[in-house]
Amino acid sequence: MRFVIDAGHGFSTPGKRSPAGMKEYEFNRAAAQFVKEVLLTYENTEVFFTHSDQEDVSLKQRTDFANSMNADAFISIHANAFGSGWNEARGVETYVHKTKPPAAVRLASAIQNSLAAKTGLVNRGVKAADFHVLRETKMTSVLVECGFMTNKKEAELLKSPQYRKTCGQAIALALADFFKLTKKPDENSLYKVQAGAFSKKENAEALVTRLKKAGFESFISCD
CATH classification of 2-178, choosing from 3.40.50.300, 3.90.79.10, 3.90.1150.10, 3.40.630.40? Predict the structure, then answer.
């Protein structure tokens, strides 16, 4: 599976800040990194970013890149805003294109439910819009709004490393479940093979002796 993760906007994008001055991109890029870290724990998974810490990447550049990568899914991560001052707008929501492609609606629903459950914020549901990144991408695409920068409580959450991790993990786990990804084996896992079962201890001891002579670490356990 090939995923393109898009941290919306950039460090210098005008206006994309909370009333207290937090840049939206700070949240977006951190959450995107956590999405990547989780997805790469699954087999046959590639993750690519559209964004850059050096420059603002245009919307066309982002969608052109995603299309050139023949991605299976495109996820654009954002923090929401209502107006420019503090207010009571709150919650998380996920967008699909206004044509409501069935696969995108299903994926958006999976991400939205995961995000609402893991953050505990108000579930504003799946919505439709004519955003460029949803209109111009050729793969299944959704845009996720992870809370309001213009809500004082949620703005504090959006600044929190733990909340950024929670959002990233919620998105990634929903993707893994939706696309039925297989977890990579744990490198620290220990697998044991039983070489024999005997009713007499001396028979077990004889087998252990032969295995050790052959170079295998062996032991006897009694159930």
Answer: 3.40.630.40
